[in-house]
Amino acid sequence: MEFIDLKSQQSLIRDQLDRRFATVLDHGRYVMGPEVHELEERLADYAGVKHCLTVSSGTDSLLIALMALGIEAGDEVITVPYTWISTAEVIALIGAKPVFIDVEATSWNMDPELLEAAITEKTKAIMPVGIYGQTADMTAINLIAKKYNLPVIEDAAQSFGATHHGKKSCSLSLIGSTSFFPSKPLGGYGDGGALFTDDDELAKTMSQVRLHGQEKPHHHPILGLNGRLDTLQAAVVLAKLDLFDNEVIKRQQVADRYIDSLKSSSHDVTVPQVSDGNTSVWAQFTILSPERDSFAIRLREKEIPSVSYYSVPLHLQPVFANLGHKKGDFPVTEKIADQGISLPMNPYLKEEEIEKVCTAIS
After folding, report:
1. pLDDT, tens only, 277-291
2. Structural domain span for residue 270
3. Is residue 266 assigned to a domain?
């Protein structure tokens, strides 16, 4: 059983991939080729925003966003400790300080009720994360951000394709950011990412940052980096985009089966909750169990793969020791990190595989 099944998906699009690869090989524009521009137009249309800029990775997308906003040393950016390290890593890379607030016990995303108390005169941005496939409460977060005139960067590396009160993830704030890492619901065959905004000037600045700060040939008014998406990766994501909506439906069907089985389980488990007004793309299906380790062993004995994501939250990572946090500072995050275990989740799980997992967890 595959935890994330890319082979079955590839069999459906192999001919299209071959055609697209051949086209790229024929025109030879491996950097910023026409497929890159085609993908940006399609993604902008999908998310419902004016501008999409594809970039070299989800990590670089966050870094480019911060650079374009002028975040610098001494500034603070509020985010969460329960996420992949990229979210806070990019804040520290530009010399700013990641300020952590805890997550909700239900959605496992940023708790808006804790946000206002974390804002100081040094706060320059807010970066919520759409963990495991659904967005944070962007409505509440945006209201607080507006009160303090702060930009919001939505880290939607796992939630692209999800909706919040009918609006697509990556269209919910000043900047949306996502990742095309192969394991994402919409991924490539290598690193890649994208940025989204309705702001014309910000789109221009992010485009410059992506290209070494270049405004026009041989003219670099700002610092930038090499943040471009390879044309071949754009070709892959274009092929996958045709399947994406149907795959999201299939992910929901798998999640529904899992939830029904867990409700009848004798184990002490907490099932994931999708917040009111949200839909999820189920990047992962994660449950909480106080007996996580023994649970994982039992699954492995039945040849069912599982993963414990973010088992050491960011505030307890050695690289952020200088922030002075200790165990107990963010209790909800720590509970999820200690008890979280993710089950196989992909749109190509066979009926007998879903049944095998359901039997095992019930």
Report:
1. 999 999 999 999 999
2. 244-361
3. yes
Q: Tell me the pLDDT of the chain averaged across its residues.
A: 96
In a domain, 120, yes or no: yes
pTM given for the model? 0.96
Copy the structure tokens of residue 342.
């993710």
List the beta strands (DSSP E) in the chain. 51-55, 76-79, 97-100, 123-126, 153-155, 163-164, 167-168, 175-179, 193-197, 285-288, 340-343
Task: Find the angle CA(333)-CA(256)-CA(261) to the nearest 5 degrees.
Answer: 85
Q: pLDDT-based confidence at 295, cuts 50/70/90?
A: confident
pLDDT in tens, 322-333: 999 999 999 999
Contact 112, 144 (CB under 8 A): yes
Return the closest-CA partner of residue 66 out of 198, 195, 180. 195
Only one residue has tokens 């099932």, namely 271
Specify whether 185 is located in the same domain as 267. Answer: no
